[in-house]
Design a protein that fits this description.
Layout (H helix, E strand, L loop, with lengths): L10 E2 L7 E2 L2 E4 L2 H7 L4 E4 L3 H14 L3 E4 L6 H14 L2 E3 L5 E4 L3 E4 L8 E8 L2 H13 L4 E6 L10 H10 L5 E7 L4 H9 L6 E6 L24 H10 L3 E3 L4 H15 L1
Parallel strand pairs: 1-3, 4-5, 5-6, 9-10, 9-11, 11-12, 12-13
Antiparallel strand pairs: 2-3, 7-8, 7-10
Helix pairs in contact: 2-3, 4-8, 5-6, 6-7
């Protein structure tokens, strides 16, 4: 985080207050940390059984944004976290979020900067792993990223595509958006209704193209209904109708983006 120009002002670990790591002060509580610094964002890597208490402490101490890296958080804990975050008006990415990063500006994620090239493509994704593959493809075609946002892969997540897409639509540094979805749930279908209104092009890849009905993938939310209504095929068709440019293969999405900009420059 420090190497990526992030303004990292402190850490919080109960019992280690007064210590330093990489010359960054550590405090015993979030409340003390916020009183002593101007922090507005936190990255939480607290183990799942204790995460709810840690996040509620941050919420009630006045934090403005939280990235929850922890995965496999108990379902009812996730529900409480999301409920209180909305009451407080706090943006949360996660649980099970790889984080958020704007190359050369700030990195609150586990994404390594050596894979990140600054550019004008915004990325919003559920999967950190697939995101790495997309970044590799963009690098190969000479394109870079304005901001990358990982929503998280647990059953209940606090921020959705429809929360992030409007921010990319307004962002002057973003010229196009890549949305990485997956089988299961309705988040991608809800995003389709907003994509119809967008002026910027949106490129989409839905993971799980060949998953059988009822198949569960790595993410807690990636379970397809047996009627196929939330399958990759169904989501792809709806997103295409909404105007999204959909790649059927993961490796094709960067090529699709490059070809779009090449054709636009020719015109």
């Amino acid at each position: 985080m420090i190497e990526d120009s992030t303004n990292l002002v402190c850490g919080v670990t109960p019992g280690k207050g007064g210590e330093k790591l990489f010359d960054i002060p550590i405090f015993d509580s979030v409340k003390e940390a916020l009183q002593r610094t101007k922090a507005n964002t936190c990255l939480s890597v607290v183990p799942a059984p204790y995460l709810k208490d840690a996040v509620l402490e941050a919420l009630y101490s006045g934090i403005e944004q939280i990235v929850i890296y922890t995965e496999n958080v108990p379902l009812h804990d996730e529900m409480e976290i999301v409920y209180y975050a909305r009451l407080k008006g706090v943006r949360i990415l996660g649980p099970a979020s790889a984080g958020v990063v704007s190359p050369d500006k700030a990195n609150v994620s586990d994404l390594n900067s050596k894979y990140l090239k600054k550019g004008n493509i915004g990325i919003v994704s559920k999967s950190g792993t697939i995101t790495y593959e997309v970044l590799d493809g963009l690098n190969k075609v000479g394109l870079g990223v304005s901001t990358l946002v990982c929503l998280g892969g647990d059953r209940v997540i606090a921020t959705t595509y429809t929360d992030i897409l409007p921010l990319f639509e307004q962002d002057l540094d973003t010229k196009a958006v890549i949305m990485i979805g997956e089988i299961g749930g309705t988040a991608e279908l809800e995003a389709a209704s907003y994509i119809e209104k967008m002026n910027k092009p949106v490129f989409v890849y839905i993971a799980g193209q060949f998953a059988s009905p009822g198949k569960r993938m790595g993410h807690a939310g990636a379970i397809v209904n047996r009627d196929g209504s939330d399958s990759a095929k169904a989501k792809t068709e709806i997103l295409k109708k909404a105007g999204a440019l959909v790649a059927c293969k993961l490796n094709d999405i960067s090529i699709l983006v490059a070809e779009h900009f090449l054709d636009k420059n020719k015109n």
